[in-house]
Specification:
Helices cover 23% and strands 26% of the residues. The chain is an alpha/beta fold. The relative contact order is 0.08.
Length: 515
Amino acid sequence: MFTLLAVAAVTAVVVPLMQLPVVRLTGVENDQVINAAELPLSLSLTIDREVESIAAYLDEKEIPIERSTGGASIAIDGLEDGPHVISISVDRGSLVPPVSTERRFLVDTTPPAITVVTPTAPVAPLGPVELKVMTDEADSMVTIAGREVMASADGTFAIEFPNPPESPISVQARDMVGNSATTEVAFQLDLPGNPGSDPIRGVHASGYTWSTPALKDPIMAMIASGQINTVEIDLKDEAGKIWWATSVPLASEIGAIEELWNLGEVVRELHALGVRVIGRLVVFRDPILADWAVAQGNTDWIVQNPDGTPYGQYGGYTNPFSPDVWEYNIAIGEEAARLGIDDILYDYVRRPDAFMDRLHFPLQGNRTPEDAIVGFLEASQPRIHRAGARLGASVFGIAATHPDQIAQPIPRMAQTVDYVAPMVYPSHWGPNEYGVVHPNASPYDIVFRSLSEFQRQVEGTDATVLGWLQDFSLGIEYGPAEVRAQIEAAADAGVLDFLLWDAAATYTSDALDPS
């Protein structure tokens, strides 16, 4: 009897020990491929009975675990790509061997590499463009601009746009494991004046210049001799006159059009000679638009005196805070660009040069005139670019040192245009500006010092500087030596682009070298 009882007692102890505990490891399966989004691994271990100890090994190296009632948790971080083994050993005491389990898995966190096949160079501003990419994983799923794109026979993924997109296009590639990569593709426009283009050497032509042989012919002779490679022609001038048949409805409604020539034909004529064409567009000085706005009761379109009456300087000045005024000017620039104009060069893109207490700007709110000017340029540049032209802004020579006088903050403006064009005419400077006692008699000194400062103020932006230089006499007779001195001063300041200004459009060709 005793023997039977003893055996029964031993059996009651040993048999449970001999029964294997149920060990469950969750969080990873055999032969599973783990992607980047699934890391770090968080594993759970459950055991159906109490055990003495638990150990975990990753690739044969013990790793820490967190014991809990009925099991443990394991966190694994820093896993490198490749195969791995996680093994668990459960120790039930000295009477029986431990129980183990393992999982073999693969870590793959490498996303597909996206390569842009096209475009790889600037594209035409207008017309269809293709965005084509390829990946280094043939089974990738590719999404372009939110649309899933199927692979073509050559393994590339492509989508066509009717015109170059304004904003960068998102491209995402996802591999079979679930890793994904995203890149942004921006379309650079192939605009005149991109890096590598010849420096601008040009002259101003008024609206009447191109319809007056006595004025046009000398400019054409300068082109033929290679002395200039650019003509800047008025699209809309200081009077608000538009010298070609723009299709902008408001221009016709207000009587701004006086057609002297066909803009498309002018552009084709000059382009055939290899000449760059800049369209000068006078913006906020616009008596025609101002008078019409007053007649229509649109008084928020104009700058006013403090008593609300129209501000009379220049015959009428439109409001730089007015979105309607913005739209009118941008629409003219867009159309000219689509007709082939290479650059739109704004002039009078400023407030009136008067004391602020003598001016009232409707719609101003808590903004400054500087905010209005910069905002207008910000709105203009992408639209002018998409129409096919670059954007420049003519600025006062004093803007570099006295920006608040005319609301032309050069560092801010330089972030919204392709170039700033300071009017650094020596005759327009007062005594001792930039330390030059008599600027009009010192064309080299004043141009060099002023343009050097403009160069400094555009640093850190994509904008360059183009110098407006004086080719007229005011107070002092200007001839080849004085004009040449300005060109040399600009070049010494690092400004190779220049335009000569003469309101009468007669130029000192002897100051220019043939190409």
